[in-house]
Amino acid sequence: SVVVLLLSAVGCSSSPTPSSKEQADANGTRDKKDGKEKKNGKGGRKDKGGRVHKGSSGNDGATEENGDGSDGDKGSRHKNGTSDGGPGDSGNSNNSGGFDPSVGYAAKGDSDSDAEKHGDTPSYIEIVRASVRGIGEKVQLTLTLAGAVPTEMPDENTFYSVGFHFGRGGGDGPYVYADADGGGWAPGVNDSDSYPGEFSVSGTKITFNLPWSALGGAQRFKWYANNSWTHSGLVDTSYSFDEAPNFERASYP
Q: What is the pLDDT of residues 103-147, one digit of tens each?
């Protein structure tokens, strides 16, 4: 009888088995402490950016409240356009090394019938496209005309000139040009016969290739292209003048 009483006493002092609800509450408390359980009650969290972190293990990366829901491990992006520099983040180009003007591009199309002209004029006096392309240490300037451009003018009374004008800060900048007469073409920079690059006339295109240093270095600027043509006759002078763009200045890039 003494043995029976002792066993009964031991049984009465043992802890009761917790109910399933109590176990869940206890687990929930631990999860909250670990930062895993949120109000949605699904073991995960949904950020304002829209990404649902299903495992809540933290490996998916956190998105800040002002973010766009991008994966934290891939670099988060914020509303102001800046980025944290993660490998999967586009962000703002100025934040990931900045703009490189030495490899930019800008082009403007133009009507093939808008030149100001008088008399009998050739088709190549109409500019149809002008472009500026940065190609590393050099810049390429290209004019595309409505007709094939001759390598020289037909006589000593005909003159043709093309050019690119550049401006910075509201003022005039460098001027790259080429003049043609009966003896052929002569390119230059800033009204000087000295030209530091390559120049070509091929089909409907006139192309300048020269170092950025001739324009004061690679940088942002305003620009436009133009051409002028004249032919002096016995009783009259025929002429043409065209610009691209016509009523504004283009931006590079």
A: 999 999 999 999 999 999 999 999 999 999 999 999 999 999 999
First to last CA, the chain: 102
Residues 6+ apart with CB under 8 A from 148: 124, 203, 204
Structure tokens at 48: 């304002």
What are the tens digits of pLDDT across the range 187-209? 999 977 789 999 999 999 999 99
C-alpha 111/C-alpha 131 separation (Å) is 15
Query: Residue 52 to residues 27, 47, 55, 87: CA-CA distances in angstroms?
Result: 22, 7, 9, 21
Tokens coding 226? 């133009």
- Tell if the pTM clears 0.70, that is, is over it: no
Cα separation, 228 vs 16, whole angstroms:
102
123 three-state secondary structure = helix
Torsion of CA 64, 65, 71, 72, to 10 degrees: 10
- Distance, in Å, from the CA atom of 152 to the CA atom of 179, rounded to the nearest integer, reads 10
Strand 105-109 versus strand 250-252 pairing type? unpaired
Residue at token pair 């002002």: 66
